[in-house]
Amino acid sequence: MNRPRESPLRTADLDAAVEAILSRNGAEIVCGTPLGLGKPVALLNALYGRVKADPARRLAILTALSLAIPTARGDLERRFLEPFVRRAFDGVPELDYLRDLGGAGLPPNVGLYEFYFRPGAMLGIPAAQQNYVSCNYTHAGRDMLTRGLNTVLVMVSERAGRYSLSCNPDLTLDVVQALRNQGRPCVVAAQVNRRLPFMTGDAEVGDDFFDVILDSPHHEHRLFGVPNPPIEPVEHAIGLRAAALVRDGGTLQMGIGSVGDSVAHWLEQRHAANGAFQEALRALQVDPDSALVAHEGGVAPFSEGLFASSEMFTWGMMRLLRAGVIRRRANGDSGPILQAAFFLGPAEFYRTLCELAEEERATISMTSVTRINDFFGEEALVRRQRRDARFINICMMMTLGGAAVSDGLADGRVVSGVGGQYNFVAMAHELQGARSVLLLRATREGADGQVQSNIVFNYGHATIPRHLRDIVVTEYGVADLRGRTDAETAAALIAIADSRFQPELARLAQGAGKLQLGWNVPEAARANTPERLASRLAPLVAKGALPLFPLGCDFDEVECRILPALMWLKRGSMGWRARLGLLASAATASPSALDAAIYERLGLSRPRGLREALLRRVVAAGLAGTRS
Question: Same structural domain for residues 135 and 43?
Answer without folding.
Answer: yes
